[in-house]
Amino acid sequence: MLVDTSRLNQIREIDRDSGRVTVDAGIKLADLGPKLAAAGLALENQGDIDRQSVAGAISTATHGTGAKFPNLAAQITGLSLITADGQVRQLSADTDNEAFLAARVSFGSLGVISAATIQCVPLYTLHRVDYKDDLDSTLSRLDQHVDSSDHFEFFVFPYTRTALCRKTRRSSEEPDPTPMWRRRLEEEGVENLAMSALARTGKRIPALTPRLNRLITGLVSGAETEDRAYKVYATMRRVRFNEMEYALPRAAVAEAVDEVLELVESHKLPILFPLEVRFAAGDDAFLSTAHGRETGYIAVHQYRGMEFETFFRGVEAIMDSHGGRPHWGKRHYQNAATLAPKYPDWERFAKVRSRLDPDRVFTNEYARRVLG
Ligand SMILES: Cc1cc2nc3c(=O)[nH]c(=O)nc-3n(C[C@H](O)[C@H](O)[C@H](O)COP(=O)(O)OP(=O)(O)OC[C@H]3O[C@@H](n4cnc5c(N)ncnc54)[C@H](O)[C@@H]3O)c2cc1C
Predict the structure, then answer these.
(1) Is residue 189 over pLDDT 80?
(2) Looking at CB atoms within 10 Å, which of 61, 243, 263, 361 has the fewest?
């Protein structure tokens, strides 16, 4: 049985003094942004897209980038959870902290989240700069890049040594918005049209992958974008792909990036998508991928319809060697036995699960595999 929460899509209450906003759990981030802005508020941080529901985003520990900022689940101060016995439980640090720490990242396995209270921040502006840098230079000064910017991330195509960097600064200034036509041109031109054409060519002739990756890296030019935050975070993703993403201790990121690139190049794998590397603060949700540590994320992708398992399993072995934890909403091959040692509070989560859902009403194939 699949529960569709898309019509649970309203804001319930805005407390302007505290910045806390209670929303129906099915509201999409894309719909929430303008409504919060009208109240002078914003989400503290966001990921690459804004098509997710609030519940879907928090349930999988969806994150953006920025070493000072934790993921979306950590911005939640209260949840309404409909549990297997039919009760609607109000969870927060003050009511049932153990269940709250479990439910914040629980991918549907504890019940249906019907509402969430989000700690928002005053509306702010983002100034984003995209530029290219030598990969070795980026990796050797990674801490400096990450700590000197509110939101730093980079992409790198296999078979190139160029980092496509993105640095974003926050401010309370009024924005001088970058015209939407220019942003669409950049995003549609390189990120979608060129990527799509090159990926289709590479799918037909995989041996061309190194040349195609160098070509697209050459096509990417510098860009600057400024606007209210909720309009800057999200980009359009029209090219379909399979993805795996791992959360690592931040200090392991540079070495792991090199190892993944080496894996692709030594096995001549036709990987037509870049690695994406991001950062986030640690938090305390039991199953948050950033639980208890400053985190770096490495995402790998493969164009739809192309074989990805060889690559993803190789990447997973590298990530395992660095203590990595897989993103709950993306592909991975872990199970309960391999995941438990990665999470110090695994047993506390299991106890909450047994208390709230003793008969395993909220179980599907994925939950069985990853939670046991
Ligand atoms: C193009 C693309 C870009 C992405 N970018 C990012 C990114 O930048 N950062 C990142 O971290 N992730 C990213 N993701 C992953 C994405 O954020 C997650 O997959 C997210 O969970 C999707 O949200 P959804 O609302 O579609 O949830 P669904 O896919 O519907 O559900 C995801 C999980 O949440 C659970 N869930 C959903 N609603 C509820 C509810 N009401 N109560 C209880 N459980 C619920 C479901 O059971 C399921 O386990 C991206 C995904 C795509 C396709």
Answers:
(1) no
(2) 361
